[in-house]
Design a protein that fits this description.
Number of strands: 22
Distance between the termini: 17 Å
Structural class: alpha+beta
């Protein structure tokens, strides 16, 4: 009988401390140390001549413009892996856990451009503005070269770090491929309640609330979240490879002074340490666009450990049950009966692989500001602080007045960038990728999908084990459900994380289901 060939590898991607993290006024800064290391981990799978590569990373995400607007980080990653081992580019996935105490690799914040190149650019911009007269703005063709996102590679030494990071991701994929050995594959679904909850609780008044301010029960219309823990288990003679999927923002210790993989890192470490015969554990983030930890952001590393431990406990339980109820020929007849009558969702995966991917241009948000008006507002806000650049980073302690003014400049900056980037189809080109492994399917989506469309996708998938992987193959910000803008909330605020229009989540899921059906028909 044909079997799976499965390999896995991991590489340390902990950044040097001069690489800045994601942040907003007044919390922008460089890291001061490392609480726990960051890793990239790769899974290589082959069956009947078809192959796929999945790389997961302790990272906030990978914007396609990370190498610069003229390049494509995801395409470059896939091309290098393809050139090295021959796996089809459409069968290669790069996903991030979305941990928030990791380097700024989303191209969202001007914290990225703080070196001489940025200061020179801004000086040129202000000189250009001064030539057109008070109250006017730059001609569009001239101002276009100041259309950012601002790229991390302009931080001193960061260009080399980004290239080194890319090489590590590629090397991890290649190592996993060369490490393949025969294996049996299984899937199971568990559940953990107590780690995550909706951070957009919709009241009957049509407004969005967060959990600490939740209305009384009778005033709540809906609160979507997904407690499912998806599991893939690959059993080799030399130990198990475990792949975990769960949906929850890793923001327990977000924007910490210390580098951290947050609760996904704690989860993987606990499984690798406490599960006997475990070679490696990988984590893939789910559709957590509107899902947070129950206690939101506590900045408490002990909380991250406890969330991770709770999830790891379910993972270890599911692995134990798979080991107990499968791979014992003398028990198989009784095991089949038990699995049927108990309703336990599990299966042995036949060695079959299918894959497909598609790029979609999503609609822009409906309330895009006028670029020239937004630019003028930014310049007015910047003038209040005499054009100083401290607003981009608060490595020193700011006064209350500086914090207030800095926040105003940042808000005006974001509005200007939303006005520009929201009109750019490249920024709104999302990717949907399906990788089918026997009766299981992984759906990679390049953004922060909300829980409701993800649950709809799972319910309508032709694969009994369907796991949604967010922050995969790029970053397009929040992929919302219809009417989100009228409900309000952070996810639809005037920020560069909200460029795609109302109902983008439903649009993405529609295409995902089509790809799932196409992959199913290949079997």
């Amino acid at each position: 009988m044909p079997s799976w060939l499965v390999g896995a590898a991991k590489v340390d991607i902990t950044p040097p401390l001069h690489i800045p993290e994601l942040g907003f006024i007044p919390r922008q800064h460089k890291f001061k140390g490392v609480y726990d290391p960051l890793f990239a981990k790769a899974l290589a799978l082959e069956a009947k001549g078809n192959a796929v590569i999945i790389v997961t990373a302790d990272a906030i995400g990978f914007h396609r413009n990370l190498l610069g607007r003229e390049h494509d980080f995801i395409a470059e990653f896939r091309q290098r892996v393809h050139d090295a081992i021959g796996v089809a580019k459409e069968a290669i996935m790069l996903a991030a856990s979305h941990a928030h105490s990791t380097p700024e690799t989303l191209c969202l914040t001007p914290l990225a451009r703080t070196g001489e190149a940025y200061l020179k650019l801004m000086s040129e911009f202000h000189q250009l503005q001064s030539t057109v007269g008070a109250g006017e703005v730059c001609p569009e063709d001239e101002a276009s070269r100041f259309h950012l996102p601002l790229y991390l590679h302009e931080v001193e030494g960061a260009s080399e770090w980004i290239e080194a990071l890319l090489e590590k991701l590629v090397a991890c994929a290649i190592e996993a491929w060369h490490e393949r050995k025969r294996a049996e594959a299984f899937s199971a679904v568990g559940e953990v309640v107590g780690v995550s909850w909706s951070r957009r609780i919709i009241g009957k008044d049509g407004k969005a609330y967060r959990l600490p301010y939740r209305p009384p029960d009778e005033e709540v219309e809906r609160e979507d979240y997904d407690p499912q823990v998806g599991l893939l288990l690959f059993r080799r003679e030399d130990g198990d490879i475990v792949f975990v999927n769960f949906a929850c923002h890793p923001t327990v210790v977000q924007v910490s002074d210390l580098v951290s993989a947050d609760f996904p890192g704690a989860l993987m470490n606990f499984v690798e340490t406490h599960l006997s015969d475990c070679r490696i554990c990988l984590f893939a983030q789910g559709a957590c666009g509107d899902v947070n930890p129950v206690y939101q952001t506590t900045s408490n590393f002990a909380d991250a450990e406890l969330y991770g431990m709770a999830l790891a406990g379910e993972v270890i339980k599911q692995v134990a049950l798979l080991r107990l109820h499968y791979s014992h020929p003398e028990r198989e007849r009784f095991a089949q009966i038990f699995r049927r009558i108990s309703g336990w969702r599990s299966a042995m995966l036949m060695p079959e692989i299918a894959f497909a991917c598609k790029q979609i241009v999503l609609p822009p948000r409906h309330d895009l500001p006028d670029p020239k008006e937004a630019e003028a507002e930014y310049l007015q806000a910047l003038a209040k602080i005499d054009g100083q650049m401290w607003w981009m980073r608060s490595e020193r302690e700011l006064t209350d007045e500086e914090r207030k003014l800095g926040a105003q400049v940042r808000a005006a900056w974001d509005k200007w960038q939303v006005a520009l980037r929201g009109r750019d189809e490249k920024e709104r080109t999302a990717e949907v990728q399906v990788i089918a492994l026997g009766e299981a399917a992984l759906v990679g989506i390049s953004g922060e999908l909300f829980a409701a469309p993800s649950l709809h996708l799972k319910a309508n998938s032709p694969f009994p084990f369907t796991f949604v992987i967010g922050y995969a193959n790029g970053y397009n910000g929040y992929l919302t459900v219809r009417n989100s803008w009228s409900q309000g909330g952070y996810e639809v605020s005037m920020g560069q994380w909200a460029l795609c229009g109302d109902g983008s989540g439903e649009i993405v899921v529609k295409h995902a289901i089509e790809l799932l059906l196409a992959c199913r028909s290949q079997k």
